[in-house]
Automatic annotation (TrEMBL):
It comes from the Bacteria. It comes from Comamonas aquatica DA1877. Residues 6-321 form the D-isomer specific 2-hydroxyacid dehydrogenase catalytic domain. The keyword NAD applies. Keywords: NAD, Oxidoreductase. Belongs to the D-isomer specific 2-hydroxyacid dehydrogenase family. This is 2-hydroxyacid dehydrogenase. GO terms for molecular function: glyoxylate reductase (NADPH) activity; hydroxypyruvate reductase [NAD(P)H] activity; NAD binding.
Amino acid sequence: MSRRKILIARAIDPQVVAFLQQHFDVTTNAADTVWSPAQLAAQLQGQDGVLTTGSERIDAALLAACPQLKVVANMAVGFNNFDVAAMAQAGVQGTNAPDVLTETTADFGFALLMATARRVTESEHYLRAGQWTKWSYDMFAGAEVHGSTLGIIGMGRIGQGIAKRGAHGFGMNVVYHNRSRLSPALEAECKARYVSKDELLRTADHVVLVLPYTAENHHTIGAAELAQMQPTATLINIARGGIVDDAALAQALKAGQIAAAGLDVFEGEPSVHPALLTVPNVVLTPHIASATVATRRAMGRLAADNLVAVLGGQAPLTPVNT
Ligand code: DGY
């Protein structure tokens, strides 16, 4: 029987490529080109499966152009690049890569919180620019982290990881808001108290966003929500661009409506709203929350295992549209 054909849509860990080559005829994108939808459709001709990274849009138009496609394995926990209904309609299995990145991403959420609250990048730029001439009592005085109130919006696995770090490692008072409340056992494990979104925004010293991007979650944080936050508060987004109204956030940062923000994701990334680039009190990173060598390899391997399972006639390990 001839081997199944798969496409790897972007450059990924070579160990994962080698693993896939044991199972399939593999087409790679060694140049790591970001293909347009038309280029992706052209590359997908005759392919049974594709490994995507989370940036490639899988919608009805693409699926209509690629009737042979059976499975799309996202190397990301988020799958807002999938039109899940269109995939179900076309009989194309979608999979994502949860769990393997939970702790790594929670680590980064905390790193961004710390860097933002304690003004790490802002002070480093000042030093590198040769502006440091003397010690001053209020030089880059930031916000307290230990013992402060941590508000988490979106209490899935990554949110819970951040809650545990805050409560157990930093003695923070953790409040959370989520579509559904956690079980009493999980709340106890995370030392987290469920509150309304309004209460969280009003009372948290640090607000961390870890919710999935959906149409309902578009601009969960906009001008009205920023106005509810304390002027000393920080906002951290490691979820998805589009959950925050970046223009409203830049305005709030400029106006001192909140103290600072840490952003790993952006509306329309890799473009960043120009106003955000001009405010000093924001830490900006290029969507790297899951980026450790081991975790990116594990994410690729889980996506690869999903391709092997589905194209081998088995159930997917981590399906998104069944
Ligand atoms: C994810 O897995 O969804 C992360 O954002 C990495 O892309």
